[in-house]
Amino acid sequence: MMHSGEDKSNVVQLPEGVTPFIHITQNVFLRRKHKKLKEDDIAICQCKYDTSDPESACVERCLNVLTNTECTRGYCQCGDTCENQIFQKREYAKTKLFRTNGRGWGLLADENIKAGQFIIEYCGEVISSEAAKKRSHVYEAHEVKDTYMISLDTNYVIDSTRKGNFARFLNHSCRPNCETRKWTVLGETRLGIFAMKDISVGMELTINYYFEWYAGATVRCLCGAANCCIFLGAKSQRFKEYNHVWKDRNDRKFSSSAYDTIIWLSYCRYKVEPSNRSHKNYNIGSGSSSTTKMKSPNAFPSGRSHGAYPNGRSNLLVVSKSSKEAREEVTKYELNSVFEETRPTIEEHGRDNQDIVPTNVAEKWIKANCSKYNTHCTLIYNSK
Ligand SMILES: C[S@@+](CC[C@H](N)C(=O)[O-])C[C@H]1O[C@@H](n2cnc3c(N)ncnc32)[C@H](O)[C@@H]1O
C-alpha cells in the first residue's frame, strides 16, 4: 500500500549494492494521518518583508524561528519570501552516496555547505518507542546489519529501515560535522540535519548518534575520532538499557579484543579492585599473583572463543573510567585473556544466543568471578 509521502514518480537511483528501500519525502505514520492544524493553533510571526532588509523575511529574529517552528503557508505575512519553510519546501543541500571504508554507505556533501545550513530532513516511519523495541529485536533476529532508527522524542522513533530518504545513510562520528534539530512543522515534530560547521564539497556528513540513536545491537565505532566512544550510541540511555550485547560474528561490527571486554565490564557498572594493587582510576584484580604473563593482544582469536582459561592463572578484570586509558592499560598489561575467561561462564547460562548477555547475567558472573579469586568487587556508578 502506498502512503502519502512515498515518492511515486521519482524513483531514486541507488548505486549498485545498496539495499533497496522505499524512498519517501515526508514521514509516514502507521496508525494515523498527518495532523491538520486548526487555525487557532497556527503560529503566526510578526515579520513583514522589507526589500531593504534581507533578514526581515523570517530569519533569525522571527518569533517562529526562535521557537523552532516553521511558518505556515498562507498565514505568514512574508508570503513567498518567507525563509522559514525549509522542511516544507525541502530546501536540501546537495548530497551524494558513497561507499565508506568499513562503515557501509555514507553521505557526502556534493556542494560547499555553510555552518548552520539545513541539509536534509531525517524521514522514515514514525513508530512508538514500544514498536521500535519490537522492531529492533526483529531486525536483530534477521541479522540486519545497519540500524536506521533515531528517536524523535520520548515517545516516538523514526525508523527509516524500510521507508526513508537519503538521511538514512548518515554515519555516526564522535566528532561530527552535522547535528539533528527538532522542528515543529505544521503541528508535527520533524527531525532535520544541520551543518555544525562549514563543510567542503566531498566531505562526509556525519552526526553523533550519542543520545538519540535507537539501536538493537552493539556496533563498534569506526569513526576514527580521537575522542571516539568505541560503540555507536554508547552513551545513550537506550544503549545502556538494551545493549549489553556482545557481537562478534561480523568483523565489521566487532573484532574481538580486550577493549570489548573492558567496555562491556564498564557497562556492567562494576569496579573490581585488586587485593593489593591499584592503578590510577582503574584497577587490575590479581588474586594470586601480580606477575602473571598473559597472551599478547594480537594472539587472541577473533570470533567466538570456547577456550577455558588456563588453570592457575590469576584472574584479571578491568573497569575503566576512560576508554582511552583502558585501551592503553590493556595493551600494557596484555589483558586479552579476560575475554576468554568471560565466555565459558556466560555460555553456562544457556542463552539461545550466547552473544547477547543481559546485564544481570553479566553482573552475576562478575561477582562470581571475583569471589572465586578473592577479589574485591564494588558496585559503582557507571563512570563512562
Ligand atoms: C543509519 S545507518 C548509516 C548508513 C549505513 N552505513 C548504510 O550502509 O546503510 C547506521 C549504520 O551504519 C553503520 N555505521 C554508521 N556509523 C558507523 C561508525 N562510525 N562506525 C561503524 N559503523 C557505522 C552501522 O552499521 C550502523 O548501524
UniProtKB/TrEMBL annotation:
Residues 40-91 form the AWS domain. Signal peptide: none annotated. Residues 217-233 form the Post-SET domain. SUPFAM superfamilies: SET domain (SSF82199). Residues 285-296 have a biased composition (Low complexity). One of its GO terms (cellular component) is chromosome. Residues 281-312 are annotated as: Disordered. InterPro entries: AWS_dom (IPR006560), Post-SET_dom (IPR003616), SET2_Histone-Lys_MeTrsfase (IPR050777), SET_dom (IPR001214), SET_dom_sf (IPR046341). Transmembrane segments: none annotated. GO terms for biological process: methylation. PROSITE patterns: AWS, POST_SET, SET. It is found in: Chromosome; Nucleus. The keyword rRNA-binding does not apply. GO terms for molecular function: histone methyltransferase activity. Keywords: Chromosome, Methyltransferase, Nucleus, S-adenosyl-L-methionine, Transferase. Residues 93-210 form the SET domain. PANTHER family: SET DOMAIN PROTEINS. This is SET domain protein. The lineage of its organism: Eukaryota, Viridiplantae, Streptophyta, Embryophyta, Tracheophyta.
